[in-house]
């Protein structure tokens, strides 16, 4: 049963493969750029030069897919990636490596300057194809004039420590950046652009994915309101406070000719997993693709669902989204998927009498193949739980309190429940699968 659940997870990941997503959805002719057939299309002049800008964890693969379609129509491209891993198939676009620690660095700034130089030199009838994926905010980064990278990083750290929401963070980032919050869009001017987006945020809000560089900000939240509400004005560098107090209103006129298309997200991945499970004879249901909140609460929810399925057979339940873990002082090593799986296991171990005749398998996994560690999550069966000793349950509870789920799964059953598929090259948040089938082996 575990092998079949892993097949379903792999199907989900393959459905949002960055290279395939771009290659399959993009059609370029002498007079138009179409995405997903005729669902989105812009007219272009046959003489219009095409430029490519790509940034994010999936930038290299997305760029490769686009270059296959664009061919000789592509005049120039720049891709900013966290790590250059594969040089066996060189790209026409120039690759820049930056943001290795998932934070903007000096290399991010230099690469972004190269992007802006390309835009400034591009023809008046140029068309820009922009490929955006998770992690792009750390790669496409250029602080506003008078603001240093250290100013920006310390400000964001202060806001996060005060519990700032993503909306509040983006309101401040817009002021402190030349490219975020529609800054890149403004540099296009009246020239046409198409953004293909691989979403790693719940609900696919365009202005939040990679901090929305090609999207006119929709939020009316002002940065000055944010720092006053969070009471952090006195904790911020003077240069930052001055920039925030000098914030200009968003332009009332939005540049024309900008199109945005989500080409991969959690919903697409879940549907592909569901199709595979149904073809395998399972009645399948997607509960949600937007599950957020505490990872422990989610683990308990999964346990409750398993108990409710005790009289069902050949049944699969799928969840998507991205939870969080509230870390205790001196926390251990773990991640949201491993934490949720550990919580579900402990809960089910206490309720064995309620489901003891049910065969099931649970998989909690990050679609990028990592869960803050080299593990994507955990995969466990009813047999794994039934066979737990009192000592193992005690160790599980101890690991949960210490947020040390990684080390528990590393040792439990010799690590066979630790889910380590390796880096997948994509990221559309997390997937959880419950599979019930009395006829399949664990």
TrEMBL record:
InterPro entries: GK-like_C_sf, GK_N_sf, MOFRL, MOFRL_assoc_dom, MOFRL_protein. Gene3D superfamilies: Glycerate kinase, MOFRL-like N-terminal domain, MOFRL domain. GO terms for molecular function: glycerate kinase activity. GO terms for cellular component: cytoplasm. It holds the Pfam family DUF4147. Belongs to the glycerate kinase type-2 family. This is Uncharacterized protein. It comes from Pristionchus pacificus. The lineage of its organism: Eukaryota, Metazoa, Ecdysozoa, Nematoda, Chromadorea.
């Amino acid at each position: 049963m575990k092998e079949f659940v892993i097949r379903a997870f792999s199907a989900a990941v393959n459905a949002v493969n960055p290279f395939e997503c771009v290659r399959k959805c993009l059609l370029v002719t002498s007079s138009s750029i179409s995405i997903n057939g005729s669902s989105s299309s812009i007219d272009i002049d046959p003489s219009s030069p095409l430029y490519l800008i790509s940034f994010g964890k999936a930038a290299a693969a997305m760029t490769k897919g686009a270059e296959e379609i664009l061919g000789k129509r592509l005049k120039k491209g720049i891709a900013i990636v966290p790590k250059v891993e594969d040089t066996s198939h060189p790209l026409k676009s120039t690759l820049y490596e930056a943001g290795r620690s998932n934070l903007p660095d000096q290399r991010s700034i230099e690469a972004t300057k190269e992007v802006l130089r390309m835009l400034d030199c591009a023809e008046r009838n140029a068309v820009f194809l922009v490929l955006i994926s998770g992690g792009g905010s750390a790669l496409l980064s250029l602080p506003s004039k008078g603001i240093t990278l250290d100013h920006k990083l310390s400000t964001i750290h202060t806001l996060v420590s005060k519990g700032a929401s993503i909306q509040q963070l983006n309101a401040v980032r817009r002021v402190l950046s030349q490219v975020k919050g529609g800054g890149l869009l403004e540099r296009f001017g009246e020239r046409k652009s198409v953004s293909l987006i691989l979403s790693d945020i719940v609900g696919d809000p365009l202005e939040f994915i990679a901090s929305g560089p090609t999207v006119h900000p929709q939020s009316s939240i002002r940065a000055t309101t944010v720092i006053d509400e969070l009471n952090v004005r006195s904790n911020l560098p003077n240069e930052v406070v001055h920039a925030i107090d000098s914030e200009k209103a968003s332009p009332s006129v939005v540049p024309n000719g900008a199109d945005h298309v989500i080409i991969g997200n959690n919903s697409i991945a879940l549907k592909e997993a569901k199709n595979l499970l149904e073809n395998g004879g399972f009645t399948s249901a997607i509960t949600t693709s937007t599950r957020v909140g505490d990872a422990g609460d989610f683990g308990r929810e999964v346990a409750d669902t398993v108990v409710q399925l005790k009289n069902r057979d050949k049944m699969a339940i799928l969840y998507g989204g991205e939870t969080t873990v509230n870390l205790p002082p001196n926390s251990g090593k773990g991640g949201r998927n491993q934490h949720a799986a550990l919580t579900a296991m402990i809960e089910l171990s206490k309720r064995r009498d309620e489901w003891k005749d049910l065969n099931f398998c649970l998989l909690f996994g990050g679609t990028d193949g990592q869960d803050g560690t080299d593990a994507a999550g955990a995969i466990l069966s009813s047999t794994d739980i039934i066979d737990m000793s009192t000592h193992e349950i005690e160790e599980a509870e101890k690991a949960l309190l210490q947020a040390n789920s990684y080390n528990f799964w590393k040792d439990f059953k010799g690590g066979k429940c630790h889910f380590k598929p390796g880096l997948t090259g994509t990221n559309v948040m997390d997937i959880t699968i419950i599979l019930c089938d009395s006829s399949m082996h664990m």
